[in-house]
Amino acid sequence: MQIKIDSDALMTDLANLAKIGRGADGGITRRALSAEDRDARDYVIARMRWVGLQVRHDEVGNVRARRADDWGNTNPSVMTGSHLDSVPSGGRLDGPLGVVGAVAALDALGRAKVACKRPLEVVIFVGEEGSRFPRGTIGSAAISGFRSVAEIYALIDPEGVSFASALKTYADRGQPMEARVETGSIYAFVELHVEQGGVLEAARVPIGVVTAIAGLVQRQVTFIGVANHAGATPMAIRKDALTRAAEWVLAIEQAAHKIGSGVVATVGQFEVFPGGKNIIPGRVEAICDLRAPTKELLDAVDKEVMATLAASKRDIAVDERLLQRVEPGPMHERAMTAIERTSSSAGLKSQRMLSGAIHDALHIAEIAPSSMIFVPSIGGKSHCPDEDTAPEHLVQGCEVLARTLADLANS
Length: 411
Ligand SMILES: [Zn+2]
Hints:
By secondary structure, this protein is α/β, with parallel strands linked by helices. The chain is built from 12 helices and 15 strands.
């Protein structure tokens, strides 16, 4: 099979999208359902039409595109896509690569006249990043049925604007299709994405095959001691909330090391009160973020972290609250082996790996055999203006995507 990605068009599309919402620091800010998000979506819709796709949208603002005659094909579809919204001052590839890469892949398959038994579909998922509404992966959660449309419409942003009212100015063309897709109506889903870490770069492997998307537990913990004079209070009678919290932070790190198997644990938010240089800390507020590739490992690290909260000899009160838990998403052999097969037929090395970050594929995996294609991130950087991937890796990722879609559509 001769597949030739139009690399000029791919680079132009990525460069044009990077102009939408770009700030003074070069970072890109496209909050879900914002004017910038809509401009990016409209740009891609025009590109979709240019390569011969017929574009629809659903009731939560996902865009779904197929070749016109594929809308009438009742076979289970082979779906691909990603998102166009971003974190504040994010990179140019996180999301857009999987969207314009999908358009480039379908374009290449069309030009190569590759016949597909199953219909191919490209999706632009709405609101993946969670940087406006208090939930991420909104569009994919609606498609899988993980969240109801009513629940999504009721989400409120920090300015008090509901998802439903933001959507009115966003997805304003024609009658939307139902968001929810039945289990069994997607034969396979594959998302192309930048790795956002340094594993592939270090291994000098161009293609990552995602085996699971790590699950997540976030807990907010408050340590309550007694604020007092740093000079006049003897060591023996202090109730220092910070030393207790510090013990816990180190115990979390040790727990992740001890369990291993891809488990990571972080305390990224940590505030000391009242925060005076001559005052013993009376209170500390911290959030821990625990991630693991399987439910068992997530339970294990969470249990360990809770045990370290209870274990201290220090007389400090602890108040703990679960902020969120997202179950890990195992990927499917059908999609993983297709990516491996087509990587090797394209002459490219691939390796299986875990995704530490959450993606829309997590929800689609609830209803369809899914996996992701990762391409190397330069310096492992993402969610920042420096996020980048070598042009040849971008094109290779698109080529593997195109071949994988054709493989799955005819297997
Ligand atoms: Zn992303």
